[in-house]
Structure formats: structure tokens, C-alpha cells
Amino acid sequence: MEEPGPEEEKEEEEARFDFLEWIGPDTSAAVFTFLDHPADLARASAVSRSWRRFVVRNGFSKIQCLRLCPEASNFTRIITKQAIASASESDAEHQHRAYMHLSYALLLDDPQDCIIRCIGASTTDNFPEETIQNTLVPTDWVAMMRPSYWSSAGHFDPAVPECLFYRLRSDLCLVQQINIQPFRAFFQYGDPIYSAKYVRFQMGYPKTPLPSQLLVSHDNEGQLAADDNYIWTYTSPQFPMLQESVLQSFKLPRAVLCIGGVVKIEFLGRVQKQEMDDLYYICGDSTAAGTRSRSLQERCGPQVLSRYSQIWRVPW
């Protein structure tokens, strides 16, 4: 077999020329930003060591993750569990791996109800009979055959808002839509429906850790349902509500990463007066709050993302 000549070796070397070197780093970076799926980025980084270094060094996994979920910009650094951390990996490698895991988790199609417990309501008319806890009861009736619903306190001013606060099952949940059913007071004349004109949603985290014990009680009724207890990282647009006692689904403009596991449902504009006292009320049925979302607690690998000046050691 003949040995290749100088010309053939030169042609073979040119055929193996690195595409990234040929078009230059700036143009290469522009091309890589068009990759819109973590699988594409993973394939590109597997082409060669130089391509992987280019992907990691330029933080394309973070750019892609922020495009999928802008709330991820609140993360400031990454902590890797000691048992899994590699001494040979740089901080850039740790960041690349973490954001790749998070991007994959964000794209998984596995919706579930993620509201796990109640935090509190801005007001309650008759506690505990009309507590926010009733909104998570899966039946229309509670003990002693009482109807299951939450009722706000009454107001002369229909513009006074009401808020319900809920805890999600994970510190990181991807929320896609929220379901609410207004309450029909079938025990009152005319079967009035105590809905609101509009509803708005906020997501965030508490400034101080929430207590592990029961949050809704006589002692702290309404105390945890105040805005100054929380940092909100997302606020939705207002959605009009139907004046009907049916399950109403409010799909967010995009899937939102709830950082901190707290959701606030804000009812804006009262519609229905109660005949006996001529006050406006808002009431939610037993199926009032159902969040179609995905818990990311066990989907994002070993890395831990931290946000702002606090370190949140989410048990991934």
C-alpha cells in the first residue's frame, strides 16, 4: 500500500479543519445561540474537546436556560454536592452541567397538581368554618355536612382585593396554569355566585422560612398573608373571571419557574353582594386552586442553584 504524498496529507489535514476556527469565535457564538434545545447543545459539545470547551466557556447552556425560563436569572451561583463534585471540573463546567440539567427538566412534559398546603388568606369571614383549607378539600362537603368553601370578609367597597396564599410541593416548580372555581351559595336566595371580576397570580419565596407546623390557625390567621412577608419573582397579567360556578382554567402566557414555592392568587373587583348585610364578598369552592405544574425537585441532578444573597439548598 502506497504512503500518502505531501499533497494528499495536506488535503486530508484541510478536510479535518475545525469549523469553529474557520468561521471565527464571534460568528461561531452567533450560530450556537440559535440552538433552542438542550439536546442540540449536548450534541454540539460532544463533537470534540474544543467544541465542548467553546460551549462551556461561552455559557451557552445558561443562555439557553434563560431563554426557556427568564426567572432562572435570579440564580447567582451553583453549589455542587461534595460527593459528586469533581476536583478537575472548573466553575464553568459546574455551571454548564447545572443549567443543562435544569433546561432538560423544564422541557419534560409531566404535568401534575403541585399545591400541597395552604398558607393563609387576606381575610376570612367565619374562621374556621370558611377557612382557606376548604379550597383543597376534594369534596363539596366537610365535617357535619357543611359546604366546603372559603369566604372573604365583607366590604362596602367592591374594589377591595382578596388574596389566597399557597405552598407548592417543591422550592422549584414550573407552573403552567392555575384552576379556580367560584362558589355558588345554594343556601342563599337566588343561589348567588361570589366570583371576582379579575384574577392575578404572583410567585416567589418567603423572606424568612415558613414554619413547619400548621400555617392556618386561630393564632396566625391572616398574618402570613401579607406582601411584605414575600419576594415576588413573577407577576401575571390580569385574567377576567366568569361569573359562573365552574372550574376556570387560567393558562399563563408562558410556563413560569416558581422560585421559592409560594403562589399568591389575587382576586380583583367584587361582583356579588350578600343580601342580608349588603356587603360584597368573594368565595372559592372546594376545587378552587389547582396548579398544573411540574416539580423540579428531583429532576435537576445534583447541582444546587442559589439566588440573590441567600443559599437555597434544594434537596435535588
TrEMBL record:
<dbReference type="InterPro" id="IPR055336">
    <property type="entry name" value="At4g00755-like"/>
</dbReference>
<dbReference type="Pfam" id="PF12937">
    <property type="entry name" value="F-box-like"/>
</dbReference>
<dbReference type="InterPro" id="IPR001810">
    <property type="entry name" value="F-box_dom"/>
</dbReference>
<feature type="domain" description="F-box">
    <location>
        <begin position="30"/>
        <end position="57"/>
    </location>
</feature>
<protein>
    <submittedName>
        <fullName>F-box domain containing protein, expressed</fullName>
    </submittedName>
</protein>
<dbReference type="InterPro" id="IPR036047">
    <property type="entry name" value="F-box-like_dom_sf"/>
</dbReference>
